[in-house]
Design goal:
The protein is of the alpha/beta class. It has a single domain, classed as 3-Layer(aba) Sandwich (Rossmann fold), CATH 3.40.50.620. A nine-stranded mixed sheet has the order 9-8-7-10-6-1-4-5-11, with helices on both faces. The chain has a two-stranded antiparallel sheet with strand order 2-3. Helix 4 crosses helix 5. The radius of gyration is 21 Å and the shape is globular.
Length: 254
């Protein structure tokens, strides 16, 4: 395999931050909140860089959609080993309603523009948990897809993908070009070293808009209300199995 890999790197609220709902319940508070790269995107970047280190591909391009701050996420990917970045600027209302379908259209357009051989995305983002972008991108491009990948091997012009499924593991073989989404066990992302962080500052990030790619960002979804999850009620301790059975009967559980 030679050619170019596009890797999606989404900027999300950091996994360690406690999420707060806005007073008007229109969304979650993002101002002044720490953001970082989506953890599954880190795994996707690591896998792409590994493919380049094995000389199976020539170039890794990190792509992020969002406001100016998305460039910080791209710089992190560049420090991990990506060669260059593409920032698709999405601002204001368009960013608030940006969903998997819109991002998929952007990736499909970029794949054609960049003549990519492979797209690697995180299987899902920890903010919306949609788990849709990879599948939608593959559908728009009419490319084979290997989702929930826990192992990726290049064999004789094809990709062998071991997938995490409910019943265990499934192994498939897909032709190139293709879309792969990274699961948790695919690899352990490397830490960006200080020299690589410094080198990343000199790598190029191209900026463009969705309109430049001919993509309409109009959303088909409308968020009506966002609420905190219900507070979990305190449990009850019982002394014996008989007490447990009696309690379950009293509450109509059995």
């Amino acid at each position: 395999m030679s050619g170019r890999v596009l890797v999606g790197v989404k900027r999300v609220i950091d996994y360690a931050v406690k999420i707060r709902v806005k007073p008007d319940k229109s969304g979650v508070v993002t101002d002044g909140v720490k953001h970082s790269m989506n953890p599954f995107c880190e795994i996707a970047v690591e896998e792409a860089v590994k493919l380049k280190e094995k000389k199976l591909i020539k170039e890794v391009v990190a792509v992020s959609c969002g406001p100016q701050q998305a460039q910080e996420t791209i710089r992190t990917a560049l420090a991990m080993g990506a060669d260059r970045g593409i920032h698709v600027q999405v601002m204001g209302k368009d960013y608030e309603t940006l969903g998997p379908l819109q991002v998929s259209k952007i990736f499909a357009a970029l794949a054609k523009k960049e003549e990519a051989q492979l797209i690697i995305l995180g299987k899902q983002a920890i903010d919306d948990d949609c788990n849709q972008t990879g599948q939608m991108t593959a559908a728009l491009l009419d490319w084979p897809q290997g989702t929930f990948a826990s192992e990726l091997t290049y064999e004789g012009g094809n990709l062998k993908v071991v997938r995490e499924i409910d019943g265990g593991l499934e192994t498939i073989q897909i032709n190139m070009p293709a879309v792969v989404t990274a699961d948790l066990r695919l690899n352990t992302p490397r830490y960006a070293t200080l020299p690589n962080i410094m080198k990343a500052k000199k790598k190029k990030i191209a900026c463009m808009s969705a309109a430049d790619l001919g993509v309409d960002l109009t959303s088909r979804l409308e968020v009506l209300n966002v609420e905190e999850p219900a507070v979990r009620e305190a449990g009850v301790k019982v002394e014996t199995v008989d007490d447990l059975v009696l309690k379950l009967k009293d509450t109509g559980r059995i």
